[in-house]
Design brief:
465 residues; two-stranded antiparallel sheet; 18 helices; 68% helix; globular
Amino acid sequence: MNLSRSSATQVVNSNPQMATLAKRLRSLDYFTLAFGTMVGVGWLVVMDDWLRRGGPVGAMLGFAIGGVALLPIGYVYGRIIAIIPDAASEIAYTSKSFSPGISFATGWMMTLAYFVVCPWEAVAVGKIAAYIFPGMDSIPLYRLGENTIYLPQLILGLGVTALITAVNYAGIRPAANIQNWLTFGLLAAFAVFLIAGATRGSPRNLHPQFSHTGWVSVLLVVQIVPYFMTGFESVAKCVEEAATGFEAHEFFPVIFAAIAVGALFYVLVIGVVAYVYPWKGLLRSSFATAVAFKHAFGARWIVDLILAGALLSLLKVLNGNFVAASRLVFAMGRRRMIHGSLGRVHPSKQTPHMAVLMVGFLTAACMLLGESILVPVTEVGSMAAATGWLATCASYIVLRPSARPRCIALLGAVVSALLILMKIAPFVPGHFTYQEYSALALWILAGIVISRSGGTKAGPVKSKG
């Protein structure tokens, strides 16, 4: 493949006053970023929804099939990162192949996919804490839809948001260290309750295996896989922060490992929850995973372990998505697609400090909307991620790789397009409602306004040679 390696440093060199991002990340850091950005607290908070959609076998097949389907897309990211090592990622890829408008639109949609997770997780920390300490369901402030916003939960969520913002402001190395500890803490807790669950329960609890007919059950779960598996491509947003000596080809196995481990995690957690307790008895339960183990063991320690794992998972997914979202905002600011001040790098900390502060502020502001407003936006985030994947695969095809990579990229593009179609086609079960379309329209409108007021738009970043 006769393609020259693009360098994001050309953007930096165009402005001698702009500092470069710190180069501190290695393979382990990229893996925990990718896996940690994917796996949050959905396995605890919305397990009842997964089982309602597919039943135990339908949900397990949905995540397994979804994980396999994402491998061609992961392949494309692994290849294109080495060709275009730019924190702008999808923005940079599309800028080499398509118009500036498509480049901005792709970056704007991917920003939604990452950013919306941040306030959602900040809200979720209050819900989990209230399960442990019921007193936090007190001092109601206001209601939005069917959900009440309580003062203690709001304060806790805002505090966590401030902490994550401060860590990311301080540097990528502190953020990566926290991500590593949180990720392996979750995996350790998961291993304990997975082994414990295997000693209790019965295969009879898995019946009926599907909640609807077989294919409908699987389809309803596959639809949500992009949202819960978004994150493997987050490594592209930190490509400029790779440590000296880290080779570009090392991104490929990191991405594949993150997809494989993420899909396996979801499959196993669904299986063990349905194994330890009859799954139909969990459909009206908040925190169905904890409820299932509480009934199976009749002991508080296993519930506390699950909740501890969930809190670790929540913090790492918030941190991972915060890193990815802030890098996209930084990249758009650096390219003058939005206000140029967001593209600045702190001279000593070498972090995109203005973008970090912006993401932190918006996360805190969106927390005030509560869960009822955030849920439809997360549905849009699922489609937004698939849109970025489609654009990346299409960009890679336009770059004219050899036949085999081109075929894999074409397969990835087809998968991405089908994931988008499943959300917008009215004949597909689980398609968007007016709430999701309204959220999408508002995000697009905001993008149009911001792009027109952001200043001079940068063109494609040209490769050397």
